[in-house]
Amino acid sequence: MSMNGDRPYTADEMMAVEASRRLTDDNVCFVGIGLPSLAANLARRTHAPGCTLVYESGTIGSKPARLPLSIGDGELAETADAVVSVPEMFAYWLQGRRIDVGFLGAAQIDRHGNLNSTVIGPYDAPSVRLPGGGGAPEIALGVDDVFVMLRQSKRTFVDELDFTTSLGDNVRVVVTDLGILEPRPSEDGTVELTLTSVHPGASADEARAATGWDLRVADDLAETEPPTENELTALRALETKGRS
Amino acid sequence: MSMNGDRPYTADEMMAVEASRRLTDDNVCFVGIGLPSLAANLARRTHAPGCTLVYESGTIGSKPARLPLSIGDGELAETADAVVSVPEMFAYWLQGRRIDVGFLGAAQIDRHGNLNSTVIGPYDAPSVRLPGGGGAPEIALGVDDVFVMLRQSKRTFVDELDFTTSLGDNVRVVVTDLGILEPRPSEDGTVELTLTSVHPGASADEARAATGWDLRVADDLAETEPPTENELTALRALETKGRS
Amino acid sequence: MIVPLSDAVAEHVHDGDVVALEGFTHLIPSAAGHELIRQERRDLTLVRMTPDVVYDQLIGMGCARKLVFSWGGNPGVGSLHRLRDAVEKGWPQPLELEEHSHAGMAAAYAAGAANLPFGVLRGYRGGDLPARTRVATVVCPFTGEELAAVPAHRPDVGVIHAQQADRRGNVQLWGIAGVQKETVLASKRSIVTVEEIVDELEPRPDAVVLPAWVISAVCVAPRGAHPSYAAGYYDRDNEFYVAWDTVSRDRETFLAWMQRHVLDTADVDGYHASLVAEETTAA
Amino acid sequence: MIVPLSDAVAEHVHDGDVVALEGFTHLIPSAAGHELIRQERRDLTLVRMTPDVVYDQLIGMGCARKLVFSWGGNPGVGSLHRLRDAVEKGWPQPLELEEHSHAGMAAAYAAGAANLPFGVLRGYRGGDLPARTRVATVVCPFTGEELAAVPAHRPDVGVIHAQQADRRGNVQLWGIAGVQKETVLASKRSIVTVEEIVDELEPRPDAVVLPAWVISAVCVAPRGAHPSYAAGYYDRDNEFYVAWDTVSRDRETFLAWMQRHVLDTADVDGYHASLVAEETTAA
After folding, report:
1. Which residues, listed in sequence order, are joined to residue C74 by a DSSP beta bridge?
2. Per CATH, the architecture of C5-100+154-279 is what?
3. How many helices and strands in chain A, by DSSP H and E?
4. Residues D212 and D206 sit within 8 Å (Cβ to Cβ)
C-alpha cells in the first residue's frame, strides 16, 4: 500500500472512503473482496449502518466484524440474515433485481466504463490469462448503479479493451487512486467517463497522464473531501481486526 | 369403509396391503394422502423398511409414526431426512428422475390407464368440477412405475374419459377393491389393463360388471393373497395411532 | 413496515389485482384472506397451487373473477363447494379458470421470482390440459428437444403467513415452505402476516428467511393460518376442514357463517373469539 | 456406500470423464482432487465455477484436457500460475477453455439438476464472451423477449466435500453451500467426501441434506477441504493460499511440491502429515 505524499492516509484508504460515501442506508449492495468489501463495510460503520451487504457466495445481510478474506468467508455466513445457494443468488436476487448497487474491479477499463477481466492480448493466445468475469457480466447489467474501484494507469485505463468482459451501461462512478470519474455528456452528445474530482495532492494532469485515452476533465472539477478522522478510525479498525 | 363379506378385513385394507407389497426396500416413492400413504407406510413397517417416502409438499424420507392427514402434515417435515421447497421438489427431484414409484388416484380411469381428476362433463360446463390434476400429470410421466389405487365401478372405470388429466404410459398396476389390473398385450398387439388377480371373495364377473369397457381377464387369473396377520396388525396400528 | 393487517390490505391490495395467497398445506394466510373479504375486494385474479378453505371463502364472497391453480379441493375431505358452485352454476358470479399442474405452477412462480418471463419444464405432455391453459413449447437450442413453457407468475400482491418477524420486519418461517419464498419474490408487492414479533430471529433448521427489504408490509396475525397449522405454534384444525364441508355446501349457511365469523369480526382475534363463542353455545 | 476415497475414485472416475469438483470458497473437495492426481487420471474435462488451488494442481499435473469455468484465480492473492501456464504456454499440455459467467454456470448446474437440457437467464448480453463460449438465444413464447440459454451441465462425476454423513450415507453440509446440491444432482455419478461419519445427522440451520440414494460413494477425508475451510471443523488456511503463489509460479518447484505432498502420500492424512513435517523442518 503506497503512502500518499505526506497525507496521513494511503491511496487505498482514500479510495475506500470515497466509495463508501456513495452508499446509503437503503442500499442493497453486491460486494466483492478487497477494496469494495472494505468500502461497503466502512459505510455500515459510518453513515450507512442500514446498508445491506450481499456476497455472491450466497450470504445476504452479512455484518462481518472483521474484513472477510474471501467472498465465502465463514464470518459472512455466520453474521448473515440469510444464506442461499449460488444458483438462487444469481437467479432470484441478482437477476430478480433485488440488489441496487454492485462494485466491480477489472484489469482494464475504457471510456465507456466497459471492463476487461478476461485476457491481456488475443483471447486464443493471451499474453496474460486473467481470472475471468465471474459474476461481473450479470452484475454490470443487473444492478441499477455500478461502482468501479480501480487504480489509474495507462495500463488499466485504456483506449481499447483487449476483451470486453462486462458493459459500462450502469457504471455511475469510477473511484481511482487519483480521483473520481463519472459519465458526463460532452458537447457532441456522447457520454464518457470524465474526471469530476481529484483527490487531495493529485492533479488533473496527473490523471490525464495515467489515462490511455484523452481524458475529459469536468469544468466544475472538484477536490475530493479527504477522509475524516472518524472515517479513518473506522476503516483502520476494520483493517486491523484479525481473525479471533 | 365397507365390510368385506365375512372376511376379517375391509376392502380398503386389502387394497392398501396389496399395494404395499409392490414396494421394495430400494424404492423411492412419491406418495399422496389416503390409501397410497397408508400403503407406503405399511410397506415401511413390514417387508420394505428402507423404502423412501417423498411427499409433494417437499418432505424427503419422511418416517411418520402416525398416518398423515394432509400431504403437508407437520409430522412429515419433522421426521424427514430433508425438506425442500415445492419448486425444488418438482424440478430437481421429480423431473430430475430421482423418484421411481408414484401413486395416483382419480375419478375416472380408462383401459390404457389414463386418468381423469379434472371434470365430469364438458370442461367449460362441467356437471362436477373435480379438484384437478395437482401433481399427477408430471408424476404420471416422471416416475418409472405408476401404481393406481381406485375402487372399481362403471362410474370410475370408463370406456372414455370426460377429460384426460394424466397419461397411462407408466401405469404398471391398478389395485381396486375387487382385484388387480395390469397392462397386458392382447392378441391384436394392443396393450390394455387386464384383470390379473381377484381378491378373495370377488370374481372376474363382478369385476367385469364394475367396468365400463369390455374388461379382459387374464388366462392365468390369480387370487390375491389375503392380508396376513402381520400385515393387518401393522396396518391397524398405523390407522389407529392418533395425534399425540 | 410493521402495520395492522387492515392497513396493509387497504394500501396494497386493489380491486382487479392479481393476488397470490400461498401456503402449501402449512402456514396458509387465512387471516389476510379474511381481511380481503372484509374490505370487499372485487374482480381479483386469485393465484394458488392448492386453493382450499380460504379461497373457497373468497370465491363464495364474490371477491374473485378468475382462479389460477393446480389443485382445488378440501384436503382429505373432498370438494370445495363454493368453488364448484362458482364454476358449475356461476354463483355468486362466474369464475374463469386457468388451470395448471403443480409442476407448471411451481415453475411459473420460480420464473417470476427470477425475473424471467417464462419457466421451462418437462410437462404438459399429452392429455387435455394443454389445450385448456396457457402453455407453449420451447425448443432447446442445443439438442432440439421440445419442452413446455409456462408464463411466469408476477402477481400484483403476494401474501404469505410466517411464524416470526423481527422488529425490523425480517421474516422467518420454518417447516414445509412450499412456494412462499417464490411468491414474495415474484410479486410486485407483498404482505407477510406472522404469528409474533420477536427481538431476534434465531436461526433454525429448514428455515426460510426473507429480509425486510423484499416485503411491503409485515402484520401480526396470531393463529392467522387457521385452519391450517403453524409449526411450533399450533396444529392443523382437522375438524374444521370436515365441518367446512357442511358449512360450505349451502349458500345461505355459508353466507351466514361468513357474516358471523368474518364480516362481523374486526380481525383475526375477533374471528377466533367468534369460533370459540359458537363452540361454547353449541356445547 | 461408505468406501475409501481411493476405491471411489478408481470405480467412478475414468479417463476422459467430465468431472465437476465443486465448492464455492468453502468445502472445496481438495482431497478428492489429490486422489485423481495420484491415480493419474487423464483427459478430464474439469468443470467448476471458481477453479482455485486444487484445479491448479490438477491442471499442472496434466489431468485436464479442458476447463469449463467462470472465475479462475487464487482468491485474494492473484493468478493461478499452472492454469496460466497451460493456457498461455501449453504446459504440460494445452488446455481448452469453455468460459462462462457465474450466472451462466449456476443456471447450467440448476438445469442439469432439473434434468433440463438448457438453462435460461438474462445474461451474456454484449461484450466479447458470447462469441467465445456455448450460449444461444431463446425467445419467450409469450412476450417475444430474447434470453440467453446455456447448455445444462451433466457431468459424468460430481465431487463435493461435506461436514458429515451418517452410517447409511446420508450427507449433511452447512454454511455456504454454493452449487454443491446441484452438482450432485446434475451428475451421473457422485462422490462425497466428509469430515466424519456420525450416528445421527442433527438438523441445523443453513443445512443441505443429500440422501444416500443420490450419491454413488461417501468417503471419509478429514481436513479434506484444505486449504479451504469446513464450517464447524477448521478455518481457511489463508497462508497456504499466499504460499501457493510461490510454489506454483515455477514448474519444477510445483512438481517437487506435488511429488512430496500428493504423489508420495497415500491419502489425506498423509498429505497433512507431509505439510506438518515440512513446517517442522523449515522451523
Report:
1. C78
2. 3-Layer(aba) Sandwich (3.40)
3. 7, 14
4. no
pTM: 0.97
Q: Residue D212 gets which letter from DSSP?
A: G
Q: Dihedral of CA C90/C92/C96/C100: which sign?
A: negative
Residue spans of the domains in chain A: they are 11-240
Using pLDDT thresholds of 50, 70 and 90, give the confidence band for residue A242: very low
Residue with cell 393465484: C47
Q: What is the mean pLDDT of residues C113-138?
A: 97
Please write the tens of the pLDDT for every residue from B206-243. Answer: 999 999 999 999 999 999 999 999 999 999 998 875 43
Any idea which fold B11-240 has? Glutaconate Coenzyme A-transferase (3.40.1080)
Question: Which residues on A lie below 8 Å from D178 (Cβ)?
Answer: 57-58, 72, 85-86
Backbone φ, ψ for residue A209 (5° rounding) = -70, -25
β-strand partners of C69: C48, C99
Could you say which of B13, B18, B56, B231 is catalytic?
B56
By the 10 Å C-beta count (0-12 exposed, 13-18 middle, 19+ buried), B187 is classed as: exposed
Work out the end-to-end distance of chain B between its first and last CA atoms, rounded to an integer number of angstroms: 24
Distances (CA, A) of A226 to A5, A9, A13: 13, 9, 10
Q: Note the Cα C94 to chain centre separation in Å.
A: 20
Position A189 scores a pLDDT of: 84
Determine the distance in angstroms separating the CA of D180 from the nearest CA of chain B, rounded to an integer.
13
Say if residue D5's pLDDT is above 70: yes
pLDDT digits (tens, 9 = 90+) for A145-156: 999 999 999 999
Q: Are A220 and A244 in contact (CB under 8 A)?
A: no
Q: How far apart are CA B32 and CA B169, in angstroms?
A: 19
ipTM: 0.96
- Cβ(B72)–Cβ(B50) below 8 Å: no
Q: Residue A244 pLDDT more than 60?
A: no
Give D-chain residues touching C112 at CB under 8 angstroms: none
Q: Is D159 helix (H, G, I), strand (E, B) or coil?
A: strand
Chains near D (3 or more Cβ pairs under 8 Å): A, B, C
For chain C, give the percent of residues with pLDDT over 70.
99
Which cell is A124 given? Answer: 486464443
- Helix (H) or strand (E) run with residue C5 in it: helix C5-12
Q: For residues B34 and B42, give the distance between their C-alpha atoms in angstroms, rounded to a whole number.
A: 12
Chain D residues whose C-beta is within 8 A of a chain B C-beta are 110, 113-116, 170, 181-182, 185, 201, 209-211, 213-214
Please say if the pLDDT value at position A5 is more than 70. no
Integer CA distances (angstroms), B69 to A105, B37, B38, C237, D122, in order = 55, 10, 11, 11, 42
Q: Which residue of C has its CA nearest to B55?
A: C176
- Torsion sign across C-alpha atoms D272, D274, D277, D282: negative
Low-confidence ranges of chain B (pLDDT < 70): 1-5, 241-244
Q: Residue C49 has which C-alpha cell?
A: 397451487
B56 tagged catalytic: yes
